Amino acid sequence: MASKTALVTGASRGIGRGIAIELARAGCRVAINYAGNAQAAGEALALVKAAGGDGFTVQGDVASAEDRARVIAEVVEKFGRLDLLVNNAGVAPNVRADLLEAGEESFDRLYAINLKGPYFLTQLAAKQMLQQEPDAEGFRGRIVNITSISVYTASINRGDYCMVKAGLAMMTKLFAERLANDGINVYELRPGVIATDMTGGVKEKYDKLILHDERGITPIRRWGKPEDVGRAVRAIAEDRFPFSTGAVFDIDGGFHLQRL
Ligand SMILES: NC(=O)c1ccc[n+]([C@@H]2O[C@H](COP(=O)([O-])OP(=O)(O)OC[C@H]3O[C@@H](n4cnc5c(N)ncnc54)[C@H](OP(=O)(O)O)[C@@H]3O)[C@@H](O)[C@H]2O)c1
User: Fold this and answer.
1) Cα end-to-end distance, the chain, whole Å
2) Whether residue 40 has its Cβ less than 6 Å from ligand 1
3) Distance (Å) from CA 14 to ligand 1 centroid
4) Is 205 left (phi over 0), alpha (psi -120 to 50) or beta?
5) Residue 119 has pLDDT above 90, yes or no
6) Which of 74, 96, 172, 205 could form a disulfide with 188 if both were Cys (CB 3.0 to 4.6 A apart)?
7) A Pfam family for this UniProt protein (predicted)?
């Protein structure tokens, strides 16, 4: 595969790092975006290089319009072209609060980082992709949104998170429809419970639910790994789904199955 270029938001740690490494295994050049943890971003870059890829780290808060514009400009300056945008950066509520008590501050934070940020970053990335010549596969670009099983699972102690992830699922459909005839496919990846810093604080709870309860919440009885999501993004980067857009991939150990 010719060296494709990718921007992965929130790639310093967790799922984003796993995605960056898998893209590197496919020989991609990866822009590793992060919010504040420069050390983790540096480690991710070293892993990308060790995996056979290349790239650079780029600080930027996806919730900031100024930062979004700067990040896209830097990617275009360094790579000359953006083949793949992965909207991965996201945060959970700082406090899991009951639906009747949850505050506006948490709602506004999650809305800004998990939904508004990706929406306007995608707008910028799509405009860049539209200016690019189609590549050998006929694509001007590809866009991947990392949502969650929270798109359809009601968790009443983090309603804000569920609502913005549901919005991100609709965002996938909107951009897929808008860009379908322009050589840009858009995909939603819907991870289940993945072992990262985000789920570190609830490890015991999910150990019980996944591993120790009689039946387990996931038919495949293990935690997900960042690599599980990374491998799916890699398949998209390698154009394994050229006739699919707006498609949803459940990367959740079968969590979404309704069982009796
Ligand atoms: N873990 C799960 O079980 C799970 C399940 C379903 C979906 N997801 C989704 O997967 C994505 C990644 O989750 P994760 O578990 O890998 O989280 P994580 O381990 O907490 O890592 C979060 C990443 O996002 C970056 N980030 C946070 N706020 C940002 C901002 N405002 N601008 C730019 N980057 C920002 C962080 O950068 P710094 O290192 O600089 O802080 C870090 O790289 C999120 O969208 C999450 O909702 C996670």
Assistant:
1) 44
2) yes
3) 7
4) alpha
5) yes
6) 172
7) adh_short_C2
- Taking the domains of the chain in order of start, what are their residue ranges? 5-249
Helix (H) or strand (E) holding 172: helix 159-179
Q: Is the dihedral of CA 163, 62, 45, 231 positive or negative?
A: positive
The Cα–Cα gap between 240 and 233 comes to: 10
At 256, list the tokens: 């979404």
Distance 15 CA to ligand 1 centre (A): 7
**Topology of the domain comprising 5-249:** Rossmann fold (3.40.50)
CA angle 175, 145, 50 (to 5 degrees): 130
Mean pLDDT for the chain overall: 97
SS3 113: helix
* Rounded Cα distance, 22 and 62, in Å: 22
Q: 């006739």: which residue's tokens?
A: 243
The rounded Å distance from CA 6 to ligand 1 centre is 17
HSE of 127, CA atoms in CB hemisphere, 13 A: 8
Alpha carbon separation from 130 to 119, 127, 171, 184, 241 (Å, rounded): 16, 5, 18, 8, 20
